[in-house]
Specification:
0% strand, 173 residues, mainly alpha, single chain
């Protein structure tokens, strides 16, 4: 029980680190800055889910680090996107433990399409949908910090979309 308690505390601590990184990332209006900070946040999320023994979520979070790098380097490249989607499905198949893994899988698939194929408001809308799936995944894993992190990521994404839309109207873009 002592080890489980330590694992739980470490999982919460790592999730709050991810929270801080994600808020900075999603409040940025610049897609490049968003992507770079998300790399570090997803390393923290992968570690958090591993500590909670949520293996599909951990594996997909780790893959998201590579996905972010590839999506930045090869935007709109359908072949590479398809490879990442297949890798996401493979991770889920290899680590599947039951229906509780569905939200993490959905988040991975939605985020992959959004990051490769979309930009600006449309990308953030799909990433907000993925964040909603991650909220559910964190609740199922028992992560208080992760649930708060993804809820704030979702809300920050919505506010940033509003800011981008407002700027476009104000500046005639």
């Amino acid at each position: 029980m002592e080890d489980l308690t330590l694992r739980w505390i470490l999982g919460q601590a790592v999730s709050f680190t991810a929270l801080a990184l994600c808020i900075v990332a999603f409040s940025s209006k610049r897609d490049d800055r968003l992507f770079v900070i998300l790399v570090f946040a997803n390393v923290a999320f992968a570690a958090q889910f591993a500590l909670f023994q949520s293996w599909v979520a951990s594996g997909i979070s780790a893959l998201i680090v590579l996905r972010i790098v590839l999506a930045r380097r090869y935007p709109r490249h359908t072949g590479i996107m398809a490879t990442v989607l297949i890798a996401t499905l493979a991770i889920a198949a290899l680590t599947w433990s039951g229906p509780e893994d569905i939200p993490a899988l959905a988040a991975g698939l939605l985020g992959t399409y959004g990051m490769f194929m979309l930009r600006g408001i449309a990308m953030r809308a799909l990433l907000a949908s993925a964040a909603f799936c991650w909220i559910i995944s964190n609740l199922l894993a028992g992560s208080i910090g992760g649930t708060i992190a993804e809820t704030l990521i979702f809300l920050t994404n919505v506010v940033t979309m509003w800011r981008l839309k407002r700027d476009a109207v104000l500046h005639g873009v």
